[in-house]
Design goal:
Blueprint lengths: L13 H8 L3 H11 L5 E2 L5 E2 L2 H15 L4 H13 L26 H15 L3 H14 L2 H21 L5 H20 L9 E6 L7 H12 L3 E6 L7 H8 L3 E5 L3 H15 L4 E5 L1 H5 L10 E2 L7 H8 L14 H25 L6 H21 L9 H5 L9 H18 L5 H13 L1
Parallel strand pairs: 3-4, 3-5, 5-6, 6-7
Antiparallel strand pairs: 1-2
Helix pairs in contact: 3-4, 5-6, 5-7, 7-8, 8-9, 11-15, 14-15, 14-17, 17-18
């Protein structure tokens, strides 16, 4: 039970805690049973009730896991701090003894939401002059950071969601992204020269074409007085060592928004580790699937772009060693090797099944590339479920205009048949995942 002296009352049920922390009920119960944390109260009916402090404890433990600790080590650290008479929630475990102060959040309230809606509508109408006029009005009212986060970033997120759901065309998405990127590039060009020591490289992982957040990181670093070298989209790994040797950065920041590019980010981080440069990373995919972070040999910068400068300023002096990463279990390594050995046979089988129908070979080949790349990435990162396990979600990866819903279902059924035929026991997780996908289509 939570200590009565902490002024917290147990009022949250299990469902509320799951929603607040992102942890599964089985995990909560296992931690309570094995480690004694947290210690919820019980109702007369035996149901758990948690206090706000219990929730904060769970978030603290999750944060330690995100930094590379195992749960047992995180629990031991908590217990050690408490035995020393310290409150772990008020201690910066990375080395500073003062309470952590949340950095400012850039927000403009209801007014920015109205402006964002207007900008999005202008982009969807392909009205560049109206979109530009709306942004100019916003910059006259709000700071550059507020406009970047509350209008540009939020607007692109809304448009991206609409594209993913098939409600917005790829042309509209590209038009809006281009406007936002050009505006942000102008802001970057207008930043003053560096006023403090420290050179950073910001780059998108190999294959990553979504550049806005990487460019936004570079802008924020420059606004904080650092020199930030922005290298852009799809930066190849094979020349990165030479770039690091030439520029001698204090830190390399890599971004990835998709599963496939998270895998390529991992490979680049492994390569850069040999140069003894500090490497940090972030991106949407690591927020959607926090477990992927355990496979990346670099420092996770957090889930929010707006806090990255504060995170670097606060923690970089402690980055003397590469954070620990979990090795890929043999189970997944065997699945990966087997899939790569059989991939061409699977794809040929798929075409043999579909060629008599109404789907062009080029479209099947394109779908094979997308699906194969994502399966490979998921296996490299240690779980086939990272691709997603619902057909509605997977469909978003295959926004091929020439594929109808019916054709896409036929394609996945053919791929499942091919995998079932060519993969043996080592490929079982792939076959089972495809089978579940077909069942939910």
């Amino acid at each position: 039970m939570s200590s009565p002296g902490n002024g917290q009352h147990a009022t949250f049920n299990l469902k509320a805690v799951v929603q607040e922390t992102g942890l599964k009920p089985d995990t909560l119960r296992a931690w309570e049973r094995r480690y004694g944390l947290p210690q919820p109260e019980r109702t007369e009916g035996g149901h758990r009730l948690y206090s706000q402090r219990d929730i904060d404890i769970l978030k603290w433990l999750v944060a330690r896991q995100d930094e590379g600790m195992s749960i047992s080590r995180a629990i031991n650290l908590w217990n050690q701090l408490e035995s020393d008479g310290k409150d772990p929630l008020l201690i910066d475990v990375l080395g500073e003894s003062s309470p952590a102060v949340p950095p400012p959040v850039f927000t403009g309230g209801e007014k920015t939401r109205e402006i964002c809606t207007g900008w999005v509508n202008a982009c969807l109408d392909f009205d560049e002059q109206r979109a530009e006029r709306i942004l100019n009005q916003a910059f006259a009212i709000f700071s550059q950071e507020v406009v970047c986060f509350e209008i540009l970033q939020r607007g692109l997120t809304e448009i991206g969601d609409g594209w993913h759901k098939g409600k917005i065309t790829v042309q509209q998405e590209h038009f809006a992204s281009g406007l936002a990127r050009r505006k942000l590039e102008g802001l970057v060009a207008a930043t003053p020269p560096p006023s403090r020591s420290g050179r950073f490289i910001v780059a998108c992982a190999p294959g990553e074409e979504h550049t806005f957040n990487a460019l936004l990181i570079g802008f924020l670093l420059r606004r904080h007085g650092w020199e930030a070298l922005y290298l852009g989209a799809d930066v190849p790994a094979n020349t990165m060592e030479l770039t690091v040797a030439q520029t001698k950065p204090q830190l390399v920041i890599l971004t990835a928004q998709q599963l496939a590019t998270a895998a390529s980010l991992r490979e680049m981080a492994l390569l850069l580790r040999q140069t003894n440069v500090h490497v940090a990373y972030g991106g949407l995919i690591f927020n959607l699937w926090p477990a992927i972070r355990r496979r990346i040999p670099a420092y996770f910068l957090g889930e929010r772009v707006d806090t990255i400068p504060q995170s670097i300023e606060k923690n970089m002096s402690m980055w003397s060693v590469t954070p620990p990463t979990e090795p890929l279990p043999e189970f997944w390594q065997q699945a990966l090797d087997h899939f790569q050995d059989q991939r061409l046979k699977i794809e040929n089988y798929v075409w043999d099944v579909l060629k008599a129908g109404d789907i062009d070979y080029e479209h099947v080949a394109h779908a094979n590339t997308i699906l194969g790349r994502n399966i490979r990435a998921a296996l490299i990162l240690g779980n086939i479920e990272f691709i997603g396990n619902s057909f509605s979600w997977i469909k978003g990866l295959f926004l091929i205009d020439e594929f109808s819903q019916t054709q896409l279902i036929r394609y996945f059924k053919a791929y499942y048949q091919a995998a079932h035929y060519h993969l043996d026991e080592k490929g079982k997780p792939i076959v089972e995942w495809l089978g579940h996908l077909v069942e939910t289509a």
